[in-house]
Design a protein that fits this description.
The complex is a heterodimer of chains A (486) and B (110).
Chain A: H1 2-17, H2 25-42, E1 46-51, E2 58-62, H3 64-83, H4 91-107, H5 111-129, H6 135-166, H7 171-177, H8 184-201, H9 210-216, H10 219-243, H11 247-265, H12 271-292, H13 295-325, H14 330-333, H15 339-352, H16 359-368, H17 373-391, H18 408-425, H19 432-450, H20 464-484
Antiparallel strand pairs in A: 1-2
Helix pairs in contact in A: 1-2, 1-4, 2-3, 2-4, 3-4, 3-10, 3-13, 3-18, 4-5, 4-10, 5-6, 5-10, 6-8, 6-9, 6-20, 7-10, 8-10, 8-20, 9-10, 9-12, 10-12, 10-13, 11-12, 11-17, 12-13, 12-17, 13-15, 13-16, 13-18, 15-18, 16-18, 17-19
Chain B: H1 2-20, H2 24-45, H3 66-97, H4 102-106
Helix pairs in contact in B: 1-2, 2-3
Amino acid sequence: MSFAVGGVIAYLVLGMAGFLVRPRWLCGVLALVVGTTTLALWAPGFPEEVLGGAPWGIPMVGDTMAFWFWMLTLVIHGAVLWHERARPGPFHPLLTLLCGTCLGTALSWDLFNLYVVLELAALLSFLLVGYEARPRAVWAALQYLILATVGMTLYLVGLGLVYGKLGTLSLTAIASLSPGLSDPTLAIGVGLLLGGAAVKSGLFLYGLWLPQAHGYAPTGVSAVLSGLVVKMGVVALARIGAAFPVGPSLVALGIVTGFGGLAYALWEPDIKLFLAYHTVSQLGYVLLGLGIGGPARYGAVLYAVAHGLFKGLLFLAAGEGIEATGEREIRRLAGRMPGPVALGLAMGSWAIAGIPPLAGFVAKEALGGAVPPPFSVILTALSLGTAASFSRLLPLFRGKGKGAWGGMGALALGVLGFGLWGLAAVPKILHPAPWIQAGAVAGAGYLFHLGLHRLRPNWPRITLDRGTTAILVGTAVLTLGLLLAR
Amino acid sequence: MAACALAIALVGLGLWVLVRRRNVIWKLLGLNVAASGAILFLVAVAHRPQGQPAIIGPEAGPNVDPLPQALVLTAIVIRFATLALALAYVIFLTERRHTQDTRRLEQGER
């Protein structure tokens, strides 16, 4: 454990030092080196240990999930560090602090420590979203701040209810009491905890801040937020799921967010908002896997990591495309993006649509092979929708002229490498069935996309007040569900 | 019990203001009343009958639960930092957009 904690502390200290040392990116590079070294030292994991000693210390666990999220954090940090190397001001210190917080989140094993790291990550994200001081992005950051604070207020009340009932916040201690949710106070408390964490993960109807915050943030920031930071809310949901029997609630949240995000994405004209709605939708896969549990849990972790890689790549490419052309609308970007940018966008889209042998294919297969039949139909429907919606980007894949790869190169290699690793590691993936299915889903998605413009629903516009109301109503529904199901 | 109920009522009041008011300063006020309610709720949870402040001293007696009180300190610091950043953003938006009305702020501009 000491290596893992040392890695987190080194990240935070180097992040702070980065405000003073020049060049600004230097401390980020050092942090990346220390982080990679410490990961190599604590891999493949460690059992629960209490930092500072029982009973008041902070419990930490290095499980499979923590290991994979450390890998993801280091890769994304490296890619964005390289991509944004020329950005002036305190960008890199903030980025290093944010990545360090994410490393800490992955290890956290008690409810209050999760609250602290989630809040810290959110505070740094608010700063980074508004970093370029454009009114639209600052407004998105302020909306993010208000909605996230509402969520965390609910979380804190839930934490108080759970602590008042059980007298502990450590997940291991709670799980060993195996409380069940038959007590109404506990059911309400857990409902509020789930609602708060759902706001932080940007789930549909809970985290309506996500599309705007991710859509209007600077290029590298969008990649970090979508690839990494929303996953920390998912870590919190998974940890709550490890202590309380809330599997069915997570499955329900997963289905709602999967289809809700997709419904908005299918007709969105702005490319970055389109990608942001897809982040909402893809979280549905992850939650479905976490809620079902067992082997599907590992599939969900792999999916979260794969999504971080290809969504980071997509956001970097989209941001570069927007900067090169000055256009944000998908149809206006067609054929105008520089060569490497178009290729990066193409690779990310193939991966998210599940085309072999890229990361999306193996992650979908690792998850899809582990869930029972009714849910695998839902996953296939989601994949079909994703393929349909990314078919809209096809005209953009033809590039024009030369350009730099930047951090996209690292993430493209990551998407390819993860796919090749998966071909060797995921069971039953070399049978013909998954390959045929992937091709069929992508083909059907393309055909579905040809008819998309015929049905063009007028979804309600997302506003701050609607977002707030959605959090309150959504959490009330979740809590009522837990109360009625006991 | 009464203290817990009062704290929850504060959360409700704050959220009500947050949803109903259109001015962003009012919204932040509501948000912070709600957040303070959650913090007071944790303090109320720590209550024990005849509990004394949990300071280690010569005479041992019934103490309030020290853990929530320690947690609350962290939560207060986080709320402070978040509010400060929110107000900085409001100042920026007021200068650029000349309004604090959330419905006008929502009507886009790059």
